[in-house]
Design a protein that fits this description.
Elements (H helix, E strand, L loop, with lengths): L2 H14 L3 E3 L1 H9 L5 E5 L4 H13 L4 E5 L1 H8 L5 E4 L2 H12 L3
Parallel strand pairs: 2-3
Antiparallel strand pairs: 1-4, 2-4
Helix pairs in contact: 1-4, 1-5, 2-3
GO cellular component, one term: ribosome
Keywords: Ribonucleoprotein, Ribosomal protein
InterPro entries: Ribosomal_eL30-like_sf, Ribosomal_eL8/eL30/eS12/Gad45
Length: about 100
């Protein structure tokens, strides 16, 4: 299995474990509460939504990645979402490692 699919599968596993919040407003609210450790944006997300989430993430020193398309994120979490927030540092480290290995 290639690294890209492993990374997508990891997002699905995190979702099933209850370690992912989904949707723009929910992710921004949880960023403000310091619950989100990593933001995952769809690579084809609208510019104004990217800016809105970026402001909240930067204000709270939370890293963001946009390596996956909206379809890949939807398939990973089973919901039609383009903005995800990972709340577990272990899943965050594993996802970043997979991305650094090449997706």
């Amino acid at each position: 299995m290639q690294n890209r699919q492993k990374a997508v599968n990891l997002l699905g596993l995190a979702m099933r474990a209850g370690k992912v919040v989904t949707g723009t407003e929910t992710v921004i609210a949880d960023l403000k509460k310091k619950k989100v450790k990593l933001v995952v944006l769809a690579s084809d997300l609208q510019k104004n939504t990217i800016e809105k989430v970026s402001r909240a993430a930067n204000k709270n020193n939370v890293p963001m990645i946009s390596e996956f398309t909206a379809v890949e994120l939807e398939n990973a979490v089973g919901k039609k979402r383009k903005v995800l927030g990972l709340t577990d540092s272990g899943f965050c480290k594993a996802l970043v490692k997979k991305i650094n290995e090449g997706v």
